[in-house]
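> run fold RING-type E3 ubiquitin transferase
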Amino acid sequence: MTAFASAANAESSQGSATNVNTIENAANVLEQLISHLDTVIPEILENEGGVRRVPPASKEVVAKLPVITLTEEILAKLGSDAECAICKENLAAGDNMQELPCKHISSPCLKPWLDEHNSCPICRYELQTDDHDYESWKEREKGLKKREKVLKMLFVVVNTCMCNCVDHWSY
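> ok
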């Protein structure tokens, strides 16, 4: 990558030290990204071309969804043109609706939807599935996002250290 930085620097008409540092920094970032491809590509290939098939919602979870009857009060909150997010039928007082954990409601056509999907058709809140591998993958992803958040916070703390010394940062 240093050859790239040298070539790019030679093409630069300004040739200033700032341009050299910027080009070298860009080259370093590109080199790091390329080095991580070795770990990312096998995961993508294992994952059927990178597209993970989302399993349906757990049968037990779907069976336990509460059923509510629409009242005029609920309909007033939803608006006069309220319709089912799945089948687009207009909702009416007296309709029996299933309530998801995210508090969105849907008509009885929610069950066929959840036989193929594991999420709310409105906000994509994910319900638990019966697929152990998928649930394990979700937990790993959640852990990775948590670690990423912690690392970002540490980066901010280190970069805002007022004493400008690294002697007190032990590894």
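The first strand starts at residue 67 and ends at 69.
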